[in-house]
Each structure stands twice: as C-alpha cells, then as structure tokens.
Amino acid sequence: IADMPTPPVVVVPLGPGADEAVVRSLLASGRPDGPQKPSDDSFVVRKVRGAIFMGMPHVIERMKTAKATARPELAKSFAAVSGTAARALLLPSKDTRRVLEATMPMLPIPKEVGGPMPVRTLTDGVMWAAFGVNGPPKAKGRLVIQSRNPEAAKALAAEIRRVCKAVAAHPRVREFVPNVDMIAAALAPSAEGDRVTIAFDPEHIVLGAL
Description:
The protein has nine helices and ten strands. It is of the alpha+beta class. The longest helix has 20 residues.
C-alpha cells in the first residue's frame, strides 16, 4: 500500500522441490520455458528469503530488510473454511481500520441500496474474513467473518441484511433478477457469538439468477 498507485508485488513461496527457473519464467513471461527477465525494464524478478518476488526494484530491495508482523489470525481464518477447495482471505490491519475510521465516518452506500452505514460497523465487524467454496458434485460455499465481539457481529449481520433487503427491493434489480428474493434468503447472514456466517449453495445462487 505504501507504493500505490504502482503495481503490487507478486510473491511465490518456493516449497520443497519447486523449480525456481520455471517460477521465474512464468512470472517474467507467462511461459514455463520463456525468458526469466520481464520485457518491461521497470520490473525485476528476484529471489528473497525463500520466495520469488516480481515487482519494481525499489520495492524488492525494501522486502529484503522488511520485518514480518505477527498475524495469528491467519491460521484461524484458514481453519474457519477448512475442507473447501478454494479459499480467499481478507485480513485488514489495525492501520487500515484506523485510517478508515479517521477519514470516513460513514460508508457512502447509495440510498438506493440501503444508504450510508457507520464505518465502525465495518471496522469492528470485520477483524478478518474467510471465504471458501467447493465445486460440484457437492457444491457449497461459506463466508466466515470474525468480529470484535458478539455485539459487533450482530450489528454487522443486521447491516448486511438491511443492504440485501434494499437491493432485493430495487425495481431494476427485480427486473433483471426475478428470483432475487430467493437469492437474498440464501445469502442471509447469521451471527453466532463473535462471528458472522453466510453458508450457501453456489449452484442454487446461479440458478436463482437465471
């Protein structure tokens, strides 16, 4: 984030038996047998502490001396969606929440889909989020959001329901997605303790949108 709007760094950890040359070629040229140097001279591919990095030179140099920050929530978020084939995590930092709270007291959600939402509902409601999904034949999806406490989880779930209800009631949405009520019901969140969970069947959602 410190280097925005420059492109992000791509990091590929080298596990046991990994072919470093192939990884370099894939990052540099998109081909496993291609050149290991990017065609754009503003990018470099370097090995740093057991991983292959691709990015701008000054960013790569900083990575060599960067100190890791402990993120114990990483393991917890992976565990929350264990057993799924594809997983994605959202791990906002304390600085992210602090900046949002200082610069944007209300999230500018259009009134057509529910209207503004207090940013604290988001910053207290989303300490981390984990999404996992399995494909056929037993397709299922799960979104787990860790909140600061049970009260924050209830507030976030209520806001999600409010926005979903407003979206489902919008005339244009109902025109293009006749079964939007079914989809909204399938995506209804539940607050259990200090977590918000949305469990759904991806195929059911897709069929409802057709």
